[in-house]
Structure formats: C-alpha cells, structure tokens
Design goal:
Order of helices and strands: EHHEEEHEHEEHHHEHEHEHEEHEHEH
Radius of gyration: 23 Å
Shape: elongated
Structural class: alpha+beta
Amino acid sequence: MRIRPAVLADVSALTRLEIASFDSDRLTRRQFRYMLTRARARTLVAEAEGVLLGYVMVLFSRATSVARLYSIAVAAQARGRGVGHALVAAAEASAWEQERAYMRLEIRRDNVTSQALFEHAGYRRFGVLSNYYADHMEALRYEKTLSPERKPELKRVPFYEQTLDFTCGSSSLMMAMQALRPSLDLNRTLELRIWRESTTIFMTSGHGGCGPLGLALSAHARGFAVQIYVNDPGVPLVDSVRSPEKKEVMRLVHEDMLAEAQRLGIPVNHGTLSVEDLQQHWDAGAVPLVMISSYRIYRERFPHWVVITGFDEHFVYVHDPYVDYANGETTLDSIDMPIRRDDFSRMARYGRVRLRAVVLVSLPQTTATRGASGG
C-alpha cells in the first residue's frame, strides 16, 4: 500500500468510494474536482496495485495554524488493515508540512467507528454541534495538537456567531461579557441592541460597524469595567466614506461618544498595545476585543472585531464571530483560531492611517476574580 496526493484522474474512483461510504452529505464529482484544484486543500489517497483503498481530505485555513480534516473514507474491502490510521497519519504530516499546529474535525454522533479511530490517534473531543448534518444529526468536534507543548487551556470565552455582516463588534463583546459573567444570555436581540448602541453610523457601503467608543460605552452600561486603546485620536474609520456629509455625521457621533466616555470616567488611551501587553491584561483578568484587518484571513478589506481567547509562546488565539461558509468553513474554523504572534501584530491595524483599536473588558475591581471568568 502506498499513500500519494490525489490527482484529477482519481475523481471517478473517489466519487464511487464516496457513494459507497456515505448515505448523505456526500462530496459530488464536481466538488472533488474543485477540492483537487483549490489552493487551500490537500487530498491524499491510499492504493494497492492500482486499486483505491481510501482517501483523506484536509483543508487549510487562511492566516491561522489550523488544518481541518474534512473527510475520510476507506473502501469496505480494505477495512481492518490499518488504512484509516495510515491516512490520518499522512494527513497530520501534510498539515505539519504546511506549518499547521492543530488538526480539527467533526464526526457524526452515530459514527462510533470513526470516533474510535480518531480517539485512538490522540484526538480529544471538545464540543458538539447540534443539527449539523443534512439529516439533523449532531456532530462531535475533535482536535489534536500536532505540537503538543503548544496547546494552552482555552476555557474562558464562549462562542457566538454573528448573524449579520456588520455585527462582528457586538458579537465579540457578547462573548467577552459572558466569559466574565456566565449567566448572561447571548441572543440575537442583544446582538442588535449592542450594535445599535455602538455603531459608527456609516461605512464604505451598507450598515455601519461598531467603533471602540461605542463598544466600551455598551459594556460599561451593563456593569463592566472597560479601557480603550486607539493610536489615532481622530474619528475612527472616517476615511472609509467619501461623502463630506457622512464624514460630518461620523464626527458628531464620535464627539458625542467621546464626551460620554469622559463623563463616565472610561479611560481612553491614545496609544497601542503589543501582543505582550495584551497578554498581561489577559492574565490580569481582562478579555480584549481587537479590531483587525480582515484581508489576511478573508482577502477582503474591511475592519473586523475578534475576541482574544488565550495565548501561548507562539500563538494568539481568537474567536472570530464570522464563519466563512462560502469557502467551506464551519464554526469549528472560527473557534480558538491560533494566529502566529507576529502575524497577529500585523493584522491588528486597519486602513491608510493603520488604525489600531482595542477594548479591554473586565469585571469591576470590587468583584473581579479569576474564578468568575472560568479561567
């Protein structure tokens, strides 16, 4: 038996194996062709004497160190011969070659054979996705650290997926607040309410996004302590619109929010925080919201909020409230995304003025404890 990269000539055999292996959620012939030609995927096949015995498909996330084992199948006549274990090992080696430190996957709740395979290979179960498959079956989420010494404990921050293109800020703040106050209920009503409170009114097109002042005021109104760090004392994101009238409206909103922050005693620091500074605040109990440029992850130029969920020597971990379904990703790809520390520093700025914005959310000093955050 040998394992090699799949080629277009394998598509027919791969399609036949897919039909024989799965009753639903099958990859089509067209999808196989797409996966074999896309830049961020690797498909490996096991064969003996020219006969396809199985395949494994791995997807690589942009700008993060996560690989996703998307699909694996072994032909009925080859089961029990170690083909599955060999394919998993080859997938991990391929991911490591691509400098991916983590492998994640989903397995059907009723697929006990696959569960046993991956648990034996060192994967740990870390969550459940309800109503995940076409027949509404749950998916069990698994993960393996390909470099074991790098994995920190990431338990403090829950995940909430934004439901609209412009609510990344409010969704990130909701995750931070529930990490500090677990009794907080996260729902769409709250997502939209915080967005209304925090919006910058206008953006390049469509609805306005959330600014650092608005998010800080919204968190303060709910009883949290906040600090703001921005490197530019001007109106955030004003260069994203061309109309003088829109610029003037954004200026008035900014000045009103700034006056309210000053009245409430919210610290507004005109400076930047390094990754090391962010880690110190995290260690002290704060949950940082950071504005990034989405270009390095999604190849689109728009400001985007994420919430930090942890650090280690090599990575900053974030929850990204946006799930890129159009590129085949799921919530699994947006949870605890590991981003190399130097890459995170480069992406944590936006626009011509290279705006850097951070909102630190914490419990008031009188009640702040590590236990309250679950860390």
